[in-house]
Amino acid sequence: MIRYEKDIDNIVTLTLDMQGRKENILNHEITAALEPVLEHLKKEKARRALKGVVITSNKKTFLAGGDLEYLYQCQDPKEMFEYTEKINRFLRDLERPGVPVVAAINGSALGMGFELALACHHRIVLNRPDIKLGFPEIKVGLIPGNGGIIRLMWLLGIRKAFPILEKGHRYLPLEALEVGMVDELADTKREMIEKAKDWLKSETEGRRKWDTEYGTIPGGTAREMRVAMEISRLSAHIAARYRGNFPAPQAILNILSEASKVDFDTATRIESRYYSDLLCRPESKNMIKTFWMEYRQIKSGINRPKGFGKFRPKAVGIIGAGMMGSGIAYVCLMNGIRVVMKDVSKLIAERARDYVRSQFTGLVAAGRLTQPEMDRLLTNIVTTDVSSDFKDCDLVLEAVFENHNVKVKVLKEAEEFMDEYSLFASNTISIPITKLAQSSFRPENYVGLHFFHPVSSIPLVEVIRGEQTSDETIARAFDFVRAIRKTPIIVKDSWGFYAARVQNTYILEGITLLQEGYPPELIENLGTQVGMPTGALRLADELSLKLVLKYERQAAAHYGPKYIQHPAVAVLNHMIEELDRPGTKTKPGFYERGEEGALSLWGGTADIFPANKTDFDLKEIEERLLFVQVLEAVWCLHEKVIHLAPEANLGSVFGWGFPAFKGGVIRFIEDYGRETFIVRCGELETKFGPRFKVPGWLKRHPQLSD
Length: 706
Known about the structure:
This protein is an alpha/beta fold. Helix 5 (148-156) crosses helix 6 (158-167), helix 13 crosses helix 14 and helix 19 (499-515) packs across helix 26 (645-656). The chain starts with a strand and ends in a 6-residue tail after the last helix. The chain contains 29 helices and 18 strands. The chain is globular, with a radius of gyration of 28 Å. Helix 18 (471-483) links the parallel strand 15 and strand 16. Helices cover 50% and strands 11% of the residues.
């Protein structure tokens, strides 16, 4: 568990190595193992046989963080408070043996792992691009709970500490050095240990500044007017950004404000109380379940066909140097995959290199990439206008115009030079993969890979299985998506696939509310209030009303006589055909652009769709906007468009921005209460029609996560 070594200079090196785990985590096991070690160190200090302590790891990571399985299961805030206070006492004992302690960080240190590093007097990190540091807890609805907020505040001040905690950014070593989270970098493990021991030999002070009489927080405390005003500004920022749906950011700010006014130990108790309360709230449980547990299930290949070896793509061909194709090229290059970029001319294909270069330049400026690394990566992209350059590609992916004939043309040109083992993928949003594959020489090797814009930041890719797509092709496509560090969900080749199909219900419900006489401003505000990234009407404009209508027409063709026309169809037809407001980038829709390009709701909406509703049931409107999405996702499970609840949840949050604090569409039902949800759907169905009908899948699955 812990290796204890003492050298002739009386410097002790503690090497963490938890048995039976790939990573060290900070839990009761490791704290129990360290407690007697700390007691021994105190005795060594008392007899003047201890100069300092170095803490490092024998794993690839330094310390991964806390035990999220345990945290998820805990339902008692008092129990969690006591657990947190126990770890706090352990960290206080670590930083108060009367001797300096150095964290020699040989791998990633995140969450509670970085809290341990902050409890050390000095931090030295290996300067490697695979090492990440920081507090990503907010990504799962949590906050640091073991003194991390307090120590970071004392280290950097409130103004600098808050964005680090709020954004949950994982810092590279150089970035962490620049913001002041660590003290030194080292190029090798040997240099790191040598630097640690050299610092200990020169350091005599074994106390932290918060344990001294004259220690102060950089920038001041919340008792000072200028700091209080900054906290007020940050509070307004939180209210505008999170709309009361995510409690963690406000908890962080409250802790910084309250803790800056008291002594250190009182401050850590304040942090522990907020943490314990937050952990037991439904928002945190939802996010831990989806973004940690279910994400790990997807990552491990729960939805990947079994029996096929891991596919390691070395070279990928991309057809189409637009924003989508260029974005895919960028993520491939960033993950060590060579790219052959083709377009109608080499000059146009060069646009992809220009885009990639601009992205790399930004990373260099931010310290996330060195100039030599950038130059090396750029040598891995080849631009061309001939398909023969695809001969060595493991996969060729087209990202051309959404036109069947164009996609078939580039497929035939490419396949002429591809070997029998390579894959061909289409990045389409609305054309059936099965239909496109009919033109392929090897339809079993043809697959859909639906990326989302912008490719660099949206982590989801839909892997679309056509009728003839083989299991091996799906497995290899899955591996490719994982190789570029995206989250794959496997989707049946059905109308709208998964993400677009479900997202469309949100848009259609917003349009229906408009038709019913609700003010458009109310519809848009309530959409964002419930946690959607944008209002339904604005989203309709961004996608184009024609595409929204196209999906609904595909639904009509799919269901045939069983199809019941959505109330929003009449509005879409009127907007497109009679008003010529299809809502593209160049034409207005429900919104219009002012003289300086600012978007605003179209003033003529009131004449076409008069707002005659005066008695608003706001909760019912909010439920309608969310329930239609949840029910359509359940229909996708019912029809085997997707197969697993984790796919439905992660696909909903990553794919179209379903509220993250709800944990996704299926987790929404668990949070609401399955039986209560079914009853409420019955009430909405009676009032508004069959789009609120509960699919049989939900009635057959009492355990929704299965």
